[in-house]
Amino acid sequence: MFTQTTIADLNAMKLFGMAQGLPQRLEDPKQADLSHAEFVGLLVTDEKTHRENQRLKRLLKNAKLKQQAALEDVDYQHQRGLHKQVVLELANPQWIASARNVLLTGPTGVGKSYIACALGNLAARAGRTVLYLRAARLFENLQQARGDGSHLRALARLAKAEVLIIDDFLITPLSDVERKDLLEIVEDRYGSGATVLTSQCPVKEWHAAIGDPTLADAICDRLVHNAYKIELRGESIRKRK
Prior knowledge:
Layout (H helix, E strand, L loop, with lengths): L1 H11 L3 H12 L8 H28 L20 H7 L3 H4 L4 E4 L6 H14 L4 E5 H14 L2 H10 L2 E5 L8 H14 L4 E6 L6 H5 L2 H12 L3 E4 L5 H4 L1
Parallel strand pairs: 1-4, 1-5, 2-3, 3-4
Helix pairs in contact: 1-2, 2-3, 3-6, 7-8, 8-9, 9-11
């Protein structure tokens, strides 16, 4: 009875990890050898683990990643110019803290989106906020926000994400409004957030593909400076499968 009351009190105080861990630990005969301080310490660890897991679930849900992907599962056997050393370097989330961008280019089907989502998954597991958007949906959302008066809030949300993933960048030509929105995004994020972009268009052609030379200068300077550039090649993995 006392244990049930304690569990109810823990749940009432939103200490759900301790509430779940208490009956399990009381049933374990090994716990009898622990001091009171050690037993309480284990319950605190249960609570900490529970909160970390809940936070990870929220981060992954809010990220809206296109694929469930992990860097540990990246395929190096397929000949596409992907160097394992670069992936191992990106497995250290220091690039996020340093606000370094990652630019993934190559033909369709070579795994650009998978790697981008794997980086997003890594960031979430490191406790970082992540947001995934296809470029077309990104600009569509901003256009709608401009119409309903929430444009500035939408830009602020993009700036706030510690890792922003923009998939299928430059798959279609940019309009003048989209170029200006893109400049606002990269300007807001420069030096404060990491941006991961995937594109079928090689980085060296981005300036011309963006269109307006003045805006292209500003956008490319902020995106490319100090960025990891991963240029993939080869035939589609989907075609091989």
